[in-house]
Specification:
about 150 residues, alpha+beta, four-stranded mixed β-sheet, 3 helices, about 25% helix
Length: about 150
């Protein structure tokens, strides 16, 4: 029974970790293959945890709009992971907190290309949660990450 598949790429299948960060997506038998996320991920290496990051730049300035802030937030997540020597391929989990699930859903066609431009075709385990508020009043989204960076 094959319970895993490589984390990189939606259609890939294998029963062992990939060379790119030794992350493997968990795929229970009989479950449909996820598109754009993984059900779960296992890996070996140093665990890197980011705080909830938002879509401002190094000057604490925000781009205009939900999609632009998601792009900046993902860029910020990667900057944090890069400090530990990792890249998008090492991210095992992303948790998105959004103020409006409707804004997220309305932006899906735009978000796909933005996600792939920043993260490539790497789809970690993900959760998206609508929240009533975030600490930063100008932020419509906050994302936290767990990465596993090879030793």
């Amino acid at each position: 029974m094959n319970l895993t598949r490589p984390i990189v790429g939606e259609a890939a299948t294998s029963d062992r970790p990939t060379a790119e960060g030794d992350l493997t997506a968990l795929q229970p038998a009989g479950w449909p293959t996820p598109k754009g996320y993984a059900n779960g991920v296992m890996g070996r290496g140093n665990t890197v945890l980011t705080g909830g990051l938002i879509g401002w730049d190094e000057n604490e300035e925000f781009p205009e709009g939900f999609v632009a802030q998601v792009e900046q937030t993902l860029t910020n997540v990667l900057a944090g992971v890069a400090e530990a020597g990792g890249g998008p391929e090492h991210i095992a989990r992303l948790t998105w907190y959004v103020r409006s699930i409707s804004a997220y859903r309305a932006s899906l066609a735009e978000l796909g290309p933005i996600y792939r431009r920043v993260m490539g075709h790497h789809y970690p385990a993900m959760a998206l949660v609508e929240v009533s508020d975030l600490v930063e009043p100008r932020a419509p989204v906050e994302i936290e990450a767990t990465a596993v960076v090879p030793v």
